[in-house]
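To whoever picks this up:

The parser on our side crashed when reading a file containing two proteins. I've narrowed it down to the boundary between the first structure block and the second sequence. Both blocks are reproduced below exactly, byte for byte. First block:
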Amino acid sequence: MKRNRRVIRAPAELGVLEALQLAVTVHRRGGLDDAQKLYERILKAAPGNADALHFLGVLQHQRGRSERALELIRRSIGANATVPDWHNNAGNVLLEMGRVDEAAQAYEEAARLAPDRADIHNNLGALRRHQQRPAEAEAAYRRAIELDPKYADAYTNLGSLLDALGRKNEALAAYCEALVLRPRHSQARKLLGVAYYTLGRLDEAAQVYREWMAEEPDNPVPRHYLAACTGENVPRRADDGYVENVFDRFADSFDAKLAKLHYRAPELIAQAVAGLCGEPRRALEVLDAGCGTGLCGPLLAPYARRLDGVDLSAQMLAKAEPRQVYDRLARAELTAFIEAAPAQGYDLIVSADTLCYFGELHGVARAATHALRPGGGFIFTVEALDADPPGAGYHLNPHGRYSHAQAYVREALEAAGLAPVTLQRVHLRTEGGKPVEGWLATAQAAASPATDAAAREDAAAQGA
């Protein structure tokens, strides 16, 4: 019995055009390793091939290697400057790197080459908003809509801009337009609900999320926001699926957006680590719990003999890996990861703006106690809840994050056997033009008797 066999020629046997077509097909299907090998083999045979240079640059950007991506994309533009998409992609990379003026030049050149491309005007709107030029951002979004009246993403972006400008009712109208055009547009639904909530129209906000849940009953995102909106069935912490959704979507622009918000959590964590651990000597076993794109990594590395990072978002970890400061990166829920770690395996556990996706803190505090060596430190930030709510000690806000009462944070840490506990009131970032206040918590695992004796001897010697 004969079997039909499909023979695929090796790239070396293909012409450059055929090899490029194969590479792009593999790339689009998510085969990044194979696509990269193909692009590199094409460039070995034809070093100036503009298409291979460009698509390899896009691939490197997908892997979080922005500097290398930009180098390749710019080489492709040097070889062929007439392709508007290539300037547009350069703008995307530059904006995510925070190089705003260069991004503006790239987007403007793309718009010059393709003045009737709605997607390019949409990107230009995002750039102008980043530059804090809201009137020009609005004009760019409206131009995108004029060019493509069915462009749902442009309506969503326009709505987000209008909401930030305090034009809530206009924002609602834009979100509704997006949903008319694409009824299952998840970002428009989310923002529409938040806008209703912000306006105090709680029943309408809840209805948005209920309708969304009715269509997608297994989607954790509307379930989470419905709980935030109504105060009913509030989870003890955000569902893993919700957290993955938020941060996978956010990964590409995470660093640039937080820079714009004057994000201070890594800096605050680093100050607390210095206060607790003294001079860095690369002597500690350190865990960055909820490491995200690795913003804390370079600040922790000088203290670490070994530095581990854990996060739920694969896209965030892909951005952390090129920093080359972590000895291990793991995709896992952080409490489960810490619970599974060897007992007394870490000298220091830090968590920057991750436990704001937890309401109940007792579990993660107990896990930290298990994983910390005697005298080891647990340092983290959470958002501050000024009112002391009855019962829980935390509150799920309409934006999807939890805030915590000071007394509750202290009680959760002390109940887990972590002491002494210090809680410092801090300014975490700016959001919607207003400061976001939080707690910077520092706690320690109990010292062993031997450690206590050594400390007493040191104190006695200093006293002498």
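<<boundary where parser fails>>
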Amino acid sequence: MNIQLKTRSAPSTARLLAGKISLVTGSTSGIGLGIARALAEAGSAVVLNGFGVASEVAKTRDQIASEFGVEVGYSAADMTKPEAIAEMIATTISEHGRLDILVNNAGIQYVAPLDQFPTEKWDAILSINLSSAFHTTRLALPAMRKNKFGRIVNIASAHGLVASPFKAAYVAAKHGIVGLTKVAALETAEEGITCNAICPGYVYTPLVEAQIDGQAKAHGISREQVVHDVLLAQQPNKRFATVEELGALTVFLASDAAASITGTALPVDGGWTAH
């Protein structure tokens, strides 16, 4: 069986989001960066957020700006700190006069049995994966309401819909994100604002690539076996989603075409949650 490991480009999008301002948390690498690039390709100015070496972040900003011809900002706000989140939102609105599209993507993971799960890891995961989205959303809504337009996209997970062993904090946080999405959607339903959650299964990123090699060496099996029998055991289509696919879906949800889509949790999981 041929297992796809390489990313595939999604079809090019028109500049559906020209004139919009987007903020993507956790966007200096991986899924968040893929989404930020897709929003920029669609014409939106983008504010990146996340950790990283200053020179690498600057290089990423320059690449996106030159490739797509949009303004690209950056905030190093720590998503565990409400005051840093508040400063990031305030600065974005002050500099651009608006905040149209908010993508809550920042997240971390830790795996351990429930009765052995370190309390500090629980607190950190809930803080970054769930509470940060509460803080960004509550602070972004006044500007969105003022402009009578807003798109909030929360990057949840298949684990926002189903559970797996040893991921108590992650599963709890992602279920919480789905619930927060529904509440935000209901509260803003008449105001030109939508809120939706994207629920990916495994997505091909450099971190996943490292997992493949690590698992193959640890278990003495081939990369193909790791992908098919370990990582993608729950995904019927036996292929990774790509960051480009998630980016294209985010652009659609942010567009006028998705004005009536709100309060949903959209699986991008190769059939995982169809079990």
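After patching the parser it read the second block fine. The chain is about 45% helix and 15% strand. Residues 30 and 207 are 8 Å apart (CA to CA).
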